[in-house]
Amino acid sequence: MSNLFDLLVAGLATGAIYALVAVGFTLLWQTSQTINFAQGEFVMLPAFLMLAAMHVGAPFWLAIILGILLSMILLGLAFKLLLVDPMMRHGVLPLAIATMALAIGIKEAVKQFFSAEASPFPSIVPTGDISILGHAVSLQSLGVLVVAILAVLGLTTLLNRTSLGHQMQAAAQNPTVARIIGVPVERMILLTFLINAFLVALASLLITPIYLAKFSSGEVLGQAAFIAAIVGGFNQVRGAIAGGLLIGVLDNLAATYVSTQYRAAVPMIFLIAVILFRPQGLLGRAEERTV
Amino acid sequence: MSGFAKPLKIALGLAVIAALIIVPMNFNRYGLFILSQWAVMSIAAMGLNLTLGYAGQVSLAQGAFVGIGAYAAAIMTTHGWPLPAAILVAIALSFAIGWVLGYPALRVQHHYLAFVTLAFSTLAFLVFRNESWLTGGIYGISNIPRPHILGLATNKPLPFYYVCLGSLAIASLAVWWLIRSPWGRAFMALRENPLRAQSLGVDTRRYTLMAFAIGSALGGVAGALYAPLTQYIDPVPFNLSLSLDLLMMVIVGGAGFYFGPFLGAMIAVLLPEWLRFTEGYYLMLYAVAVMLLLIWSPTGILGILDRYLAERRTKAASALRAVAKSRLETVQ
Q1: Can you tell me the distance from the alpha carbon of A231 to that of A242, in angstroms, rounded to the nearest whole number?
Q2: A126 phi/psi in degrees, rounded to 5
Q3: Which of A95, A112, A223 is nearest residue B284 as measured by Cβ atoms?
Q4: pLDDT digits (tens, 9 = 90+) for B216-238
Q5: Taking CB atoms and an 8 Å cutoff, what residues of chain A touch B244?
Q6: In chain B, what are the domain boundaries?
Q7: How close A210 comes to chain B (CA, Å)?
Q8: Where does the chain cross the membrane (chain A) (predicted)?
Q9: ipTM of this complex
Q10: Residues on chain A touching B283 (C-beta within 8 angstroms)
Q11: Residue B142 main-chain phi, psi, to 5 deg
Q12: Greatest Cα pair distance in chain A
């Protein structure tokens, strides 16, 4: 029993990080039909930006702030202006391919300018265990969970409770009508890109102490986020959250109870099953088909 | 491409074929390897172009079919079977699996389909890696023999390059014939407007599965040539990134254009090699080049040519109109 409890906590912690990445992914899809194949690399990069800031002498807290700001400029603003804007009107596929190329570019740049080796990364939460209900729970898992939950709560409050959030939703759901009633659609789309950049930087900060900073670590992360987004429902923020948590737990349970060799297969089979039997995702709404 | 006169086109085609046969004769071993790789990847990309460019079904699993073909060929030829038999098995196997993978395409479209095929790709990779009784696991299969064709050994790089080039020629002719057949037209109808195609009596169900199966079978052929080309295979080359690379080749070359995959494969295989002199930067430059190209022309390289020809035709037509109009006016 104690083993299962540990697995669940660890699974929820990684799942919460996947959820952050998946939420950003669905936000981009909803507002601009961008399928960002570089999302995993987007999570990998901010950790290196923070490491670079520390390398030139910034203390850890300053490095975090600089890393997040730089991510928002590079992965939010520059990504939208330089790559997404010129390609958006040409359909989903060319843009998706361009983000694949971007993924290769980011990976190679990090390998070339930083290091091909894995680098350790400081944790924002102290290591150690605390006891909950008689179980030892690692502070790191708990810290990750708390930060991720706060971020998600903050985001859903922004989206559902504020005028800004409503404008963003309007821009996503029906840009034409939103424009007519005076929503600055372009600015709202830019805002979702900035939010996505913030979320991936946060995810980077949370996950890198666990898995080390490595140029190739984006592949696994990106895939987990895709799966989480699809399983939960491609067009729903809360779906992406549920999907992220589910995939995190499933992944951890599969590693113990299935086999380490086929651990990666479990989320994939789950994904295929969801797409075949409930293509709109567990919490998603069906998309209308038009002639 | 209809802007050129027909004899000119034929002459150009013959010149390219002659160059592909004659020029590599004094290439070194590595140059021939790269060129053979281009031929093999062109076959795989051509298959994906059929599925994606003509029938409009997104597949992120073409790399897995190259893997299936490669393992089929590696296992059979190391057990003493001739390569042509292995190619036939690779075709049959990829065709059957591709057909089955087409079933999700009947239910879901676009990005959902992309993700089902992405999941399949990962599953195939896991099978290659983990079923070591069959595939040799992470150690792979080595000493894959190259075939004897009509009694001639093709162990040397040049003869084997001709085997790859000949296979590419056969595959190209088959695809050329296919897209001009009623099937090809049905594929395009599927891409342009599935509902209208259905209402016109096209069995969309069968053609969707067909598009997947035939495209995958070409992936299998490419794999069956890849194994004797490298003479050693392990699971790593057949992971998801190969599928993504093949997709990139098709889009960069120009999806839905017959010559798109050849150009796309050329860029994906040769451009990184040409950029090697930049050492660590070559893949970065390659990525930037692909992004710039797609920003400039989202329909790929042939899209640029297509637009240019279309523009020239409209200009020529309006010039003709202007001439005709002024003539009319002088007559009056």
Answers
A1: 9
A2: -65, 145
A3: A112
A4: 999 999 999 999 999 999 999 99
A5: 37, 100
A6: 28-254
A7: 24
A8: 6-28, 60-79, 91-110, 130-159, 189-212, 224-250, 262-281
A9: 0.86
A10: 104-105, 108
A11: -115, 180
A12: 59
